[in-house]
Amino acid sequence: MKNVIVIPTYNEKENITKLIAAIFALKLRNTDILVVDDNSPDGTSDAVKKITKPNTSQNHIFILDRTKKEGLGKAYVAGFKWALANGYDKMVSMDADFSHDPKYLPKMLEKSNEFDVVIGSRYTRGGKITGWQWHRYLNSWGAVFFTRLILGLKPKDVTAGYKCYSRKFLAKIDLNNIVSSGYAFQVEMINLAQEGGFKIAEIPITFADRRVGQSKISGELRRSVKAVFELAKRKKFYRQFVKFGIVGVGGTLIDLVIYNILALLFHYNIYFARTISFILAATNNYILNRRWTFKNKDKNIAKQYFQFFFISAIGLGLNLLIMHFAQNLVKNVQNEILKLNIPVVIAILIVLVWNFFANKYWTFKDKK
What we know:
Elements: E1 3-9, H1 13-24, E2 31-37, H2 44-52, E3 61-65, H3 72-85, E4 90-93, H4 105-111, E5 117-121, E6 128-130, H5 134-151, E7 163-166, H6 167-172, H7 185-195, E8 200-204, E9 206-208, H8 220-234, H9 236-265, H10 270-293, H11 301-326, H12 336-363
Parallel strand pairs: 1-2, 1-4, 2-3, 5-8, 6-9
Antiparallel strand pairs: 4-7, 5-7
C-alpha cells in the first residue's frame, strides 16, 4: 500500500520543513509527502526543494508548483490528481501549520483500511480545540451545525481538513466537477462520500491553533456559505422541496379562486364551497406532485390519492390549530394587517414542512 500526505501551502516557509521532519520522525511505511505550493512569495517551494535533494530514505518528498493562488480546494484537487496518476492507495489531506498534529497519522492510516474516508474530528467524543478565542470556536461550531442541517450530513465534524481518503473514493468522484475552491471543499468531499455510499469514520483529535504564520481563513465565510447552498441545490431532496412548495402555492390559488366563484358567483353555502374547492385543489396538487415533484410511478393511484388527501386534511386541521395558538403571539401587535397575517404565515410554513415529509416518506415513498 502506497500512502501520500498532501499538504497545500501558501507562505508556510516557517512551518513546512519542521512539519516534514515531524512526519518522517514517525517512520511510517511507504508514506510520501506531496507539497502543493500556490506560488508562495516567501519561498516555501524553495525551502521544500532544499530538503528533497539529499533525501534517500524509503519515504520521499515531492513538490507540485502551481502558478497562482486559487484556493485550498483547487490545490487539493491538483494534489489528488497527481496522487492518483502516481499510483497511491491512500491520500491524507493535512494543514501545514501544525494545527493537525502528525501523531494522529498512524491511527488514521490504520483506520483507513476499513473506511473510505477517515476524519480527524474536533467534535466527536474525545476531540477538542485548543488556542482559540470563544468567538472563533462559536463561528466554527455554528458553521458545522449550519452545514450539517442544510446538507443532511452525518459526521460530527464536516468542516475538518485532516482526513484520509481511499483511492477507491477519489477515483470514483469527478474531481473536475468540484464546486468549492476554498474551505468549503472539505464539506463538499464529505457530501460526495455520503451521497456515494462510501464508508466514513471519525477519530478524535486535538486541533491546535497555528504556531507561526498568518491564518488564510479571512474572507472565506461568504464564499463557503455560497458553496454550501450550491451543493444544496444539487440535492434531490431540496429540488423536491422547492417543487412541492411551488405546487402548494398553485394549489392555494386554485382553492381560493374556486371557493370565491362558488360562494360569491353561484351563492353556494360557504362550507359546501370550501369543501369542493379543497377537494379540487388537493386533486390538482396530487397530480402535479406525483408527476413533477416526486416523479412517482406507483400503479396503485387510488391508494396514493387517499393517502395524499388524508395528509392534506390533517394539514388543514393543523393549519387552523396553529393559527389559533399563533394569535397569542401577536396579540400585542398594533398593526392590524400584520396581526391578521403573521399567524397565517406561521401556519402555512409549518404545515408545508409536515405535508412535504409526510408525502415524501409515505404517499410517494421511493420503494428503492
